[in-house]
Amino acid sequence: MNGHLPPSPAFAALNWIAAERILILDGAMGTQIQALGLDEDDFTGRASGHACRHHSDHPQKGNNDLLILTQPQAVEDIHYRYAMAGADIVETNTFSSTTIAQADYGLQQAVADLNAEGARVVRRALDRATAEDGRPRFVAGALGPTNRTASISPDVNNPGYRAVTFDDLRAAYLQQATGLIAGGADILLIETIFDTLNAKAAIFACLQAMQAHGQALPLMISGTITDASGRTLSGQTPTAFWHSVRHARPWTVGLNCALGAAAMRPHLAELSGVADTLICAYPNAGLPNAFGQYDEGPQDTARQIADFAREGLVNVVGGCCGTTPEHIRAIADAVAEFSPRKVPEYA
Ligand SMILES: [Zn+2]
């Protein structure tokens, strides 16, 4: 579908860098936002004079994406810290900026602003960082899985029931991708995929948005392994997952979240063995403790990710839940000596 579109200038630049070295992705937003200790008035912006112009009767505490509009400086500063820690690619804070996910907060009408501003605030942070050190950096527009699955019924008494359809998802993701591109995203990143049918809707929407934009953007696709047997929630192995998304010719395919680096390793090795494109891995900082917090320190995470690099499994690495700018700095230092994985050539 996007085969005949010319690649964006950023696409060419990213390919050039990826041939030379392992690229660094940023770390978690959630942990950094939590550390700010924001209350309801901070989330709505009533306390800071950036009150959201979109009205909702729902409480907004916990709606992290809304901070793009109501605490833009705080969000920009987090992105900036990741950029200065060594991230080449920084993700927008838009994991839940679809009409489907924002319905929980009564803010479906805010998604165009959330996505466009979400990309702009990353661009501002990256431009600040680049003004200091001259290094190019790239905005990855993040598309999350939504809180509904198209493959599995949430009602045990009605296995045929679906809380969301493919078409609902495709329409929601098209709005999101369009907003991210309008705000200047260099990359579209579909992440934390637990349901391949949701991911297929997101892929379709991203390709449609690129078509409307008239340029091909690099597409990053990242699944998550949710059980010990090494399958996604919709039941696929890493190999099956690759074959379900390969038609999109993603710039990277990979894994994030759910597991720490150690438990991710065999699944990543499997994916690296079958995928004829770049591989991206951004695990959590280990597994959460009994309080849901992550204890794994920057050096521990970095050592395990350096093992991925030493074995030639990765082209892009970063961190998911529980990682901080210190983790990203340690990861960037630890992989600097290793060459990027060579993409195998299959027919
Ligand atoms: Zn995560």
Automatic annotation (TrEMBL):
Hcy-binding domain mapped to chain residues: 11-335
Region (Disordered): 46-65
Annotated keywords: Cobalt, Metal-binding, Methyltransferase, S-adenosyl-L-methionine, Transferase, Zinc
Binding site for Zn(2+): C257, C320, C321
Listed InterPro entries: HCY_dom (IPR003726), HCY_dom_sf (IPR036589), Met_Synthase/Corrinoid (IPR050554)
Pfam families found in the cross-reference section: S-methyl_trans
Highest taxon, organism lineage: Bacteria
Cofactor: Zn(2+)
N-terminal signal peptide: none
Family: Belongs to the vitamin-B12 dependent methionine synthase family.
PANTHER family assigned: METHIONINE SYNTHASE
Name under which the protein is recorded: Homocysteine S-methyltransferase family protein
Native species: Paracoccus stylophorae
Phylogenetic classification of the source organism: Bacteria, Pseudomonadati, Pseudomonadota, Alphaproteobacteria, Rhodobacterales
